[in-house]
């Protein structure tokens, strides 16, 4: 994104984020947002719970949903569909923040897809900071779909499909989400949320590496899930150039629904 004179202007007045845009499951509470430039924002929030690296994805996701609805005027009834996420802590150790710590997310909207003035998709990159240090970065990609479009593209994900290709040298475990993991902003959802799948894959990485710290995680969501059918989570080593790296995969009813990579220290 090129730097323009607009980006040199002072920050605008902080605008409140309505309560209905909060997501208690994220461990973060949004407070306010300001526009720095046409597609550049700052979002204030409060940290309550969560650890690296997913707290970064949660913070950026929360910031994206706030500006999508408030700055880009995506209607409240539209579905915000994850396409990918990645996150990288500034430090690999545990996140030692007391509950109530203020954080700020500096957010850039990358290549927004605007159709007749309506945002229908975009990637977003954010840096999460406290008052005195950077916690790390996160990047997410969303599609914003009307209810009718969502029903069309979602289709019938529970139908059987050809088995996903076997992974040699991989380990696998079954994942069934808890009822509390099947909510978004306190309301039930008709799929397993992307953050829930990402969290389950990261837990498998930690289990298989004796609790090694994840220094980078990325995932791409390739299909919808149904909440009442288990997912098979798979992991295999993919070390390269001296880096401890693992490939991860989630499969449901023979469909690959999520792929990803985790780097550990």
Strands in their spatial order, largest beta sheet: 1-2-3-5-6-7-4-11-14-13-12-8
Backbone CA Rg: 19 Å
| Tally of DSSP β-strands | 14
Task: Provide the helix percentage.
Answer: 10-25%
Main sheet, how many strands, which sense, barrel?
12 strands, antiparallel
Oligomeric form: single chain
Structural class, from helix and strand content?
alpha+beta
Element string (H = helix, E = strand): EEEHEEEEHEEEHEEEE
- Poorly predicted regions are 1-10
Tell me the distance between the termini.
32 Å
Shape designation: globular
Determine the strand fraction and express it as a percent band: 35-45%
Counting DSSP H or I runs of 4 or more residues, the number of helices is 3
Whole-number mean pLDDT: 89
Describe the structure.
With 265 residues, the protein is an alpha+beta fold. It starts with 14 loop residues before the first strand and ends with a strand. The radius of gyration is 19 Å and the shape is globular. The relative contact order is 0.15. Strand 2 and strand 3 (40-47) form a beta hairpin. It has helices at 54-70, 147-154, 194-208; strands at 15-16, 28-37, 40-47, 79-89, 101-115, 118-129, 134-145, 171-175, 183-184, 187-188, 214-221, 231-237, 244-252, 255-264. The chain is built from three helices and 14 strands.
